[in-house]
C-alpha cells in the first residue's frame, strides 16, 4: 500500500508521477542526503536513525562489497591502509599535489599512467573518484529506500574553492554511482538557501563554514530575492580535524606517549580527542582515560579553558580569509546583516564566541550546522526537478581564481577576473605577432599573477588556418565561457575567415585548495614585483619586434646604406640586444628609442625606393583612373 | 460517518504545518486519474471553502470537499513507517480494488 506525502495546495502529483531529487552534501568527514517531503526539507536517516554518513570507505579482502560509513569507521584502526577517510581532499588532484598532504594521510599513493593519483588497497588500485562514488552509492540507496523510488537526480554541493578538476571529479564520481547531477552547488550558497535568507528583502550575509577538514567564508548579497555570491575565501587545511590533532598532541604530551606512535595508536588518540572535544561543547570539563598501548593507560582531565587555549590559534586562522573576503566584497563587518554558521566545528562555543566578536553580532545557528548544507541542496534539487515553488530562486556563484591566456613574453592576459559571478561569457580580441603567421597557440591559465610561470596551466590548443597577413592584421576573438557548474570552455575564432577552434577544460588533475590560497597570497605579496617584471617583458617584446624588423630590412635593402650608416645601425642593434638581455626596462626603452632614430633615414629611403618601384612603368593617369573607381 | 486521523497522523500533520509556517489543516480529496480510475489528493489547506466538510481529529483539522467525501467517508488516515520509507496511509472502506502500488483505486 502506498505511503503518501503532503503536497502544496493544487500541486498533488498524478499517481506514479511524483518526482524526487535529493540534495547531497559530500563532505570531507561526513556526508548527508536530504530531500523535500511534505513540503519540508529533511535529511534522511539510516535504519538506526543516524543522519550523518561518515565519509569513510573500507575495502575488504574477502571479495565482498566495500563497507561505507560507521561500519568502515569501526574497523579503521584495525585496517588503516584499506580504510579511506577524507578522500575529498584527494579529489581531482595529482600525486604532486598531495605530496604535502601525504604525510598526514596513512595511504599508499601510486603514480598511474594518467595524472590522476591512485591508492593501493587490498582489492587493487582505487582512484579518489571511485572511492567517492562508493559514498554516493550508499547515499543513493538510502534515499531510494526512504522514498520508495529509484532516485537518480541530485544536487551535490562542493566547496566554493573547488577548481574545474575537482568539480569534474565530483561529477565523475556521481556518474559512477548512477546519479545525474542536476547542478553542483557551492556549499555556503546551499546554507543560505536552507536558512531561507531569500525571504528577506535584501541584505549582505556571511557564511562561516568550519567543517572537519576545510574552512570557507563566503559573502552573499541578496537583492530582490536573488542571491549573488560576492566573494569567497578560505583555508583548505583547517577544520575540526586539526583541533583533534591539537588535542591528541596535548594528550600525548600529558600521557608521555612517544611521537612515533603508529597509525593505529594515532587513530585511537584522534578518536579520543574528538569525543572529548564534542563533550566539551556541552560541559565545562571532561575526564580522559587513554589507552597508551602495551597495557598501560593514562587518566586525566581536559577543561574547556584548556581546550580553548589549544584551539585559539586555529580559530584565529579563519579570521584572515574572513578579512580578505570582506575586502574583496568591499564591505565592512558593520554592513553584514547576518552570519550563518555551517560545519560541525561551529558547535564549539569558542568558535561562536570568536565569530560573534569578529562580526560584531550573534551568528545564526538554529539549523543543525551539520545538516544545513544538505537541506539547502535538497531545496535547490526540488526546484531543479521541476517542483517549483511560488518564489523561484536564482543563484549566482563566483569563480575563485582569474582565468586568462598567455600572450607574448610569457605574460598572462586575464579574460575573466576572480570573483566574477557565473555563468559568464567574456571575449577579447587578439592578433598575430609575426608576418605570415598562420597558427596561434592558445594557452589557458588560472591564477592572479602576471607571469605564465606563476600561474597554473589548464589547457593548450591551436587555432590553425589563419590566412597569412602582416603582423597585427588578424583579428582573433577568444571567448571564455563558464557554465553554472563552474566548468570552463574556451574558443578562438579568426574573424575574417571564420576559422575556429575550441577546448573544454577538463584538466587531468586539479589544484589543491591550499595552493589557491597560496596563489592568492603570493599575488598580493608580489604585486609590485610583478608590475616591474611585466614592464620589463613589455620592453623586451618591443625590442625583439624592432630588432627583427631592422634585421629583415638590412637583409633586403642594405644597398641603400653607406658603410658608416650601416655600421651605426649594426652598433645600435648590438647595444639594444645587450640591453634587452638585461633587467632594466628603462634602459631597453632608451636603446629602442635610439635605434629607432638611427634607422629613420634608412626607413625613409626604403619607403621612397618602394614607391619608386611601384610607380615605375606607370603613367600618372592610370592612378587617377584607379582612384575614380574606388568608392 | 466521518474522516479520522490516527494519533500518529495527527501529530505529523501538526508538526509539518508548524514547520511550514501556515495552513488551516490537511485537505484530503479524490480526483479522477491514475491506472485504477481515482487518485488521492493530500495537500495543505490554506483556506476552507463554503462546501467543505471539516473534521477535527486528535487535535488536527481534516478538510474534505463535498464531492470527494462520497469516496472517502469512513476513511482513517494513519502515518506509518515501512523500512526507511514513511508516510500517510489511507484505510478507506470504500475502495473495491486498487492498483498494485495503491496510488490509485476504484470504488
Provide a short characterization of the protein structure:
The complex is a heterodimer of chains A (631) and B (107). Chain A is an alpha+beta fold. Chain A contains 17 helices and 28 strands.
State the CATH class of the largest domain in chain A: Alpha Beta
Count of DSSP helices of chain B?
Answer: 2
Ends of chain B: how far apart? 17 Å
Uncertain residue ranges of chain A? 506-510
Oligomer: heterodimer
Spell the H/E element sequence of chain B. EHEEEEHEEEE
- Number of spatially distinct domains of chain A: 3
Beta strand count of chain B: 9
- What is the count of β-strands of chain A? 28
Shape of chain B: globular
> How much of the residues of chain B is beta strand, in percent?
over 45%
User: What's the arrangement of strands in the largest beta sheet of chain B?
Assistant: 4-5-2-3-9-8
Outline the low-pLDDT stretches of chain B: none
Largest interface: A-B, 28 and 35 residues
Arithmetic mean pLDDT of chain A: 83
Radius of gyration of chain B: 13 Å
| Strand content bin of chain A | 25-35%
Mean pLDDT of chain B: 84
Q: What does the largest sheet of chain B look like? A: 6 strands, mixed
The helix tally of chain A amounts to: 17
Radius of gyration of chain A, CA atoms, in whole angstroms: 31 Å
Tell me what the structure shows.
The complex is a heterodimer of chains A (631) and B (107). With 631 residues, chain A is α+β, with helices and mostly antiparallel strands. Chain A has three domains: 17-239 and 310-397, ATPase, nucleotide binding domain (Nucleotidyltransferase, domain 5, 2-Layer Sandwich); 399-517, Sandwich (Substrate Binding Domain Of DNAk, Chain A, domain 1), CATH 2.60.34; 528-615, Substrate Binding Domain Of Dnak, Chain:A, Domain 2 (Up-down Bundle). Chain A is built from 17 helices and 28 strands. In chain A, strands 1, 2, 3, 4, 11 and 12 form a six-stranded mixed sheet that branches. A six-stranded mixed sheet of chain A has the order 18-13-14-15-19-22, with helices on both faces. In chain A, a hairpin with an 8-residue loop joins β5 and β6 (67-68). In chain A, α13 runs antiparallel to α14 and α13 packs parallel to α15. Chain A starts with 21 loop residues before the first strand and ends with a helix. Chain B is of the alpha+beta class and 107 residues long. The mean pLDDT of chain B is 84. Chain B is built from two helices and nine strands. In chain B, strands 4-5-2-3-9-8 form a six-stranded mixed sheet. Chain B has a three-stranded mixed sheet with strand order 1-6-7. Chain B has helices at residues 7-20, 66-72, and strands spanning 4-5, 25-32, 38-45, 52-57, 60-65, 76-82, 85-91, 97-98, 104-106. Chain A binds chain B through residues 1-12, 14-16, 37-40, 44-47, 142, 145-148, and chain B through 12-13, 16, 19-20, 26-27, 31, 33-35, 39-46, 80, 82-90, 98-99, 101-104.
